[in-house]
Amino acid sequence: MNSPIYCVIMAGGAGTRFWPISRSSRPKQFLDILGTGKTFIRSTFERFAEFVPAENFLVVTNGAYRDLVLEQLPEIGADQILAEPLGRNTAPCIAYAAFRLKATAPDATMIVTPSDHLILNEAAFRTVVEEAVGFASSHEVLVTIGVQPTRPATGYGYIQADRPIRADGMNKVKTFTEKPNAELARAFLASGDFFWNSGIFVWQTRTILNSLAALLPDTWQLFSSIESAYGTPDEQQCIDRIYPECRAVSVDYGIMEKAGNVYVRCGDFGWSDIGTWGSLYEYMPRDEAGNTQGADRILFDSRGCLVKTPQGKLAVIEGLEDFIVVDTEDVLLICPRENEQNIKKFIDTVRFNGGDRFI
Amino acid sequence: MNSPIYCVIMAGGAGTRFWPISRSSRPKQFLDILGTGKTFIRSTFERFAEFVPAENFLVVTNGAYRDLVLEQLPEIGADQILAEPLGRNTAPCIAYAAFRLKATAPDATMIVTPSDHLILNEAAFRTVVEEAVGFASSHEVLVTIGVQPTRPATGYGYIQADRPIRADGMNKVKTFTEKPNAELARAFLASGDFFWNSGIFVWQTRTILNSLAALLPDTWQLFSSIESAYGTPDEQQCIDRIYPECRAVSVDYGIMEKAGNVYVRCGDFGWSDIGTWGSLYEYMPRDEAGNTQGADRILFDSRGCLVKTPQGKLAVIEGLEDFIVVDTEDVLLICPRENEQNIKKFIDTVRFNGGDRFI
Question: Which of A313, A342, A350 sits opposite B318 (nearest CB)?
Fold first, then answer.
């Protein structure tokens, strides 16, 4: 029996790390921050639509973003959007999708993916995912897609595989490690056993449901309690009722770190979560002085600057080194590139000063 | 016989030193850069309207700014705007006004004033001007208003008075000096004989016409050649014809430095020509870190910054010291405050790159 392949896009994030470009009303997944001509969620959809039919997508997002999803993915129907009333991290998000599929496509093999990552080598990525799908659809396993690390990044989670490592195959997972410090990251890289955690998972619906029941029984119980509602007109009302009771927990912490049947399929496909202005800077075209390129900008005596201005606006900058300059219609941000982690502080201050309209 | 007092406002400047706030389509005199609630030209008009009737104003400006003048000074009629087809510095501007008055008010005493300066002590200023008017209306003299210098400014012209100096009266002028270097400026200040040249003049119409005939005969000849046209429907057409033939020359260089009947009336009335972002900075309210104040701005670890953003726009700035940050709808300028003289270079580069729409 061929298990149908479903793709669950997790698009509920309201991240603020790309503020002031990303706003609570239009977070990163609905933006084309890289200037590719497509938003992150659109690129994610097209990546999987190569081998998953449009009607087999589910998009889990905040209800406030329903229209943005439909605008970006006109191929899908409104019933394919699973609207969370509030964010509770990835485990409830995945539980919701799994229970929906149990009702509508119980034999499905699920690909679960974030909606806002960059993948440069789509062909290599597809090979990796298809192998993971083939393995997961025929085994009771939880497969995670790992990324061959290229530097001792401290901003990513790491997956340690059991030796011997099969670079082109399935590897049993030994440990998950959250963001390591620099020393540990260097040791991870040197060992050859560690891979970046892309947050992309493949499993059968019944497998993840079994894992939820065993490892996050409270979450499983909540979603199970409204089992008769999935796929019916009552679903939204029931979801809205149980969601506030869910514990916010990530699938990595709640399931993957504790389950015994976790495998990693590694690949090298030019992945980045583009999680900060700094990581975006690495992927933007730059001139010989290290300033990001773009029309209508003139820089004097400036180096290493990430400059982002609205189309048609001129920026004239002198004497800045390693700064972020992000200009939007109603907010101008200027700060040292190395201080990008302060953006959260900036936002808190703006909010404290009554500037909710700027967030 | 009482000579009627006329006020000639010179408002033809298309200066770029406040770019990108000032534009060729709306230069500084038509802006409220200081945030007083009034444009410079409006403040200038109101200053003199205290003792000059509205119908006795003439505004010499570029034809392109006619509507801006009428918008700012609804009290005056269209016939009180003398429209230059192109700028030729102050001597032709003054010659035009003098010839118009010769035709319409030959006995007038003229106050000639720039349109874009700051005067903080209006009462002290009025006293000085009224004394100058009293003296000029009864003598064949060219009176210039001098300003008690408060620092060895290198950006102003200086007027040296003959000793003994009468701080509260008329002084014969000994020399005019253009912008001195710092050492000379310090010597000027120490001597007590030197005053800043405010560019405000008082004289009778016939006196300035006699001086023009004697000292700038080519200019006098051109304006004299269309004498029958002043105050008639032919005036504009004639002016448009002769203006391109005028030499561009300042009244300071062409008349004041060479005439023998020049007097200076000094005063201390809080004057500044607000000629640069730096001089504007000195007059803007600042916080304890020396950053200019304003709504919707949050600065971290920043000092000495001049920040100017459109109303309702939020600026979040970290790590800038002594910078100018000027944001407009279509241009963002960021440069060190000490490099404000580079603005001309910026504009040249913008123009070279085809950015005329930004100038």
Answer: A342
Spatial separation of the C-alpha atoms in residues A198 and A184, rounded to whole Å: 19
- Which DSSP symbol is given to A292? B
What three-state secondary structure class fits A293? coil
Q: Based on the number of CB atoms within 10 Å of its own CB, is B6 exposed (0-12), middle (13-18) or buried (19 or more)?
A: buried
- The whole-angstrom separation of Cα B279 and Cα B272 is 8
Q: Centre a 10 Å sphere on the Cβ of residue A28 and count the other Cβ atoms it contains.
A: 25
Q: Give yes or no for a contact between B307 and B317, defined as CB atoms under 8 angstroms apart.
A: yes
In this prediction the ipTM stands at 0.85
What radius of gyration, in Å, describes the C-alpha atoms of chain A? Answer: 21
Residue of B nearest to A333 (CA): B316
Start-to-end CA distance of chain B, whole Å, equals 49
CB burial string B187-220: b at 16+ within 10 A, e below: ebbeeebbbbbbbbbbbbbbbbbbbbeebbeebb
Contact B332 A349 (CB under 8 A): no
Look at residue A352 in the predicted model and tell me its pLDDT.
Answer: 92
Nearest of B146, B154, B150 to residue B185 by alpha carbon: B154
Q: Do B317 and A335 touch (CB under 8 A)?
A: yes
Q: Which residue has the tokens 């009778």?
A: B204
CA proximity to B199, closest of B271, B123, B131, B122: B271
pLDDT in tens, B23-68: 999 999 999 988 889 999 999 999 999 999 999 999 999 999 999 9
Tell me the one-letter amino acid at A145.
Answer: I
DSSP B301: S
Q: What is the dihedral of CA B252, B254, B255, B260, to 10 degrees?
A: 110
What are A307's strand-pairing partners? A325
Is the peptide bond between B20 and the residue preceding it cis, with omega within 30 degrees of 0? yes
Among A299, A305, A334, the residue to mutate for chain B (most B Cβ within 10 A)? A334
- The residue-averaged pLDDT of B96-120 equals 97
CA distance A313 to A295: 9
Angle CA(B274)–CA(B149)–CA(B189) in degrees, nearest 5? 130
Q: Which of A69-83, A84-98, B61-75, B155-169 has the lowest mean pLDDT?
A: B155-169
CB A153 within 8 A of CB A185: yes
Q: Using a CB-CB distance cutoff of 8 angstroms, which residues of chain A are in contact with residue B309?
A: 332
Structure tokens at B206: 């016939």
Question: For B291-335, how does the pLDDT look when each residue is reduced to its tens digit (9 = 90+)?
Answer: 999 888 999 999 999 999 999 999 999 999 999 999 999 999 999
Distance CA A84, CA A218 (A): 18
Phi, psi of B5 (to 5 degrees): -95, 125
Partner-chain contact B313 A300, CB within 8 Å? no
Mind giving me the DSSP string for B13-30?
Answer: ----TTTTTSBTTB-GGG
- Let me know: does B99 contact B230? Beta carbons within 8 Å: yes
